[in-house]
Amino acid sequence: QVQLVESGGGLVQPGGSLRLSCSAIGFTLDWYAIGWFRQAPEKEREGVACITNIDRTTYYADSVKGRFTISRDNGKNTVYLLMNNLKPEDTAVYYCNVGPWFGRGTQVTVSS
Fold first, then answer.
1. Are 70 and 58 in contact (CB under 8 A)?
2. For the segment 56-98, what is each residue's pLDDT rounded down to a tens digit?
3. 15 - beta bridge partners?
4. For strand 106-110 and strand 10-12, is the pairing parallel, antiparallel, or unpaired?
5. pLDDT of residue 1
6. From CA 52, how far away is CA 58, in angstroms rounded?
7. Backbone dihedral angles phi then psi of residue 90, each to the nearest 5 degrees
8. Among positive and negative, which fits the CA dihedral 31, 75, 25, 52?
9. CA 76, CA 94: separation in Å to the nearest integer?
């Protein structure tokens, strides 16, 4: 059974940091590009970051450039999203995406 399991979300103050993790179960991440999406209340899901599988090229939404870093550890079958200088507008449920699969998401709340 293919599963993506996100973790690492939580409540953080503006300016703080979090590192999200996404572990793959039932398949190997090596062959896939991996993305992070997020969905805030009453808003559409949007792409945040992506990392390719061959040369690990990364792409970021303009709203998170310079603050978020996506990385992957194929040995651990895990992808990460390091989020620095978090802002209230980053509050959302964050989802890992591989091909047609999404995880259940992890909640990130940025509030003082």
1. yes
2. 999 999 999 999 999 999 899 999 999 999 999 999 999 999 9
3. none
4. parallel
5. 79
6. 7
7. -85, -5
8. negative
9. 20
